[in-house]
Amino acid sequence: MSVFQTRPALRWLVPTGAALAILGGGAAVGTFASAAEPNLPERSAAQLLVDLQTARLDGLSGTVIKRADLGLPSLPGIGGRGSAELTSLVSGTHTLRVWHAGPDKTRVALLGTLGETDVIRNGKDVWIWDSQANKAEHSTLDGQPTGRPGHLPTTPQEAAEQALAAVDPSTRVSVGRSASIAGRDAYELVLEPRDATSLVGQITIAIDAAEHVPLRFQVVPQGTSKPAFEVAFTQIDFERPDPAQFVFNPPPGTVVTEGARPDGKPMALPAEVERPTVVGKGWTSVLVAEVPQLAEVAKVAETDGAEAALLRSVLGGLPEVNGAWGTGRIVTGKLFTALLTDDGRVLVGAVTPERLYEVAQSTR
Amino acid sequence: MSAVDSPADVPPGSSPATGATASGAVASSAVASGAFPGGTVSPGTVRRRGWRSGRTGRARFFRSELRLVFGRRRNQAGMAALAAVPVIIAVALRVTDGPTEAGRDPGFFSAISGNGFFVALAALGAELGLFLPIAVAAIAGDSIAGEANSGTLRYLLTVPVGRTRLLAVKYAAIVVFVATVTLLVAAIGLLAGLALFGGGPVTLLSGVQVSLAEGLLRLLGVCAYLTVGLCALGAVGLFVSTLTEQPMGATIATTMLAVTSFVLDSIPQLDWLHPYLLTHHWQAFVELLRDPVAFDALRPGLLSAAGYAVVFLSAAWARFGGRDVTS
């Protein structure tokens, strides 16, 4: 202490040291946690695939972080951090809390800054609770899963299942380096599309070494190493949660809507739109839809109505492209490309623009 | 400088005047309230074994500091303004019959018409954005700079009170003030809400109902969590206050730091920076209103507040202990 009295300048070492220790300590813990490569007995990709499919999950609860950075042009009302609306899952970072006790008892809570949306399944009952609107939606299942907007995977399990469905001869499967996720040792399964026109570089699934449950799911776009989409547990507990966790009684004053959700079609398409067709297979399949209104908007410069004006202003900001297939506008994200042609077609796929032009040419 | 507005028996300052103007503020502090008899001025040296060292002296100093913070008219007016917000919220919602359509309004406003309990939370949530930080910044900014500005700091130190102890007592008073205003807003909100809307079981964010008693317990937890977060801002304010002799400047600087933190926190492109921001974790108080409560989610906020407090309190100590007190 006396040193501090005679040399007051030395006192500044204390706050500086504290700041460095706190920042450095925090960073070091983070780096060690992510760099730690647990020593695990070797396991082949095929064994891991089997592990995944045969995992017997009694129950779990945990916290899931979902990050999506799809390179979408920012649109008002979509995505964002801290929103508790289910449709906002399309982009941004979100925290979810999950409880799972058998296939017919699940609860997923999307945590917003000042609200929460819960999707609770208990037996045949499915509740969707929205704390901010004070609304609850009840439906009864007859063996069908709930339709979440866009079927975005909300848990690593769901995501892994969707990816495994895509494992076919078009995919190279390998084992990556082991990782430590949510304090647990995990193997990493790497899926790579063989087709170079796919925008997906690789998909990695981290699988818990003991429980064989997917702990993390990442989609890395072609040519980068930073995942554009990630679902990962930050905390997990394999205890079977309390059954009371899955009981939902709408609190008094809640607006309760009854009814089954429209089956299979998460978002109602306008009646004029024809059912879209899928061209190609696997990673490079392209969705082609006819949207006649689009052609009208492109042709008629002065269409009346606020909706058309809004559509025009959105379309106007997109880069124009043309080729043998015609002219149109293109939306490029990190994991998908969409082409809106002036003759009223929409082509979407996780592929390069060149592949879309090819499809546009062939489906004219 | 201090000679401008100090009594005639003040020895002239040993350093050149820095141009501080007489603020006309209430002559602050223990000297005015008579807690400290005058002593010999021995500038530059800090005696650690203080006057009447031990518990009584410390308690007396602390008490006089509290009297200072809570006795000042401007602080009382500020607290009244903070307490008015929940009343305004409750009355406004009562008069307009509440929102007819369950919209996506921020905070807990839509829940108020069903249960007056939520007035407290809505008021805390609303004031957290600016009012509470300003109140904390005003008290913390005034703590050292206010004494320096009104020329009483040197007397405090000649008493002699160790500088470290002076800082500790000042910060303790800030902590008490923060806890008091947070509880005050919650309590007034609760009273106004229960009086105008009635109480009853509390619906949590997860759609689960708990008894009013458990709701009150959770509200208390919210107040405690917010107190910790605001005390970190108080530590920053105390440090800024040691840098200047203008209490207003310290207050404004601290408020601006808080507002800057809010602004940076709302820019999604800076998400790598967000966990380090002073105000980032404050909103996590809503975690206490979910079921089951994940206390893990509160940990980052508490750790970050502790980190800020340690760094800025030690910085305040380094700055204050090493500087020449001339006013």
Automatic annotation (TrEMBL), chain A:
Signal peptide: none annotated. PANTHER family: SPORULATION PROTEIN YDCC. This is MucB/RseB N-terminal domain-containing protein. Residues 93-240 form the MucB/RseB N-terminal domain. Transmembrane segments: none annotated. It holds the Pfam family MucB_RseB.
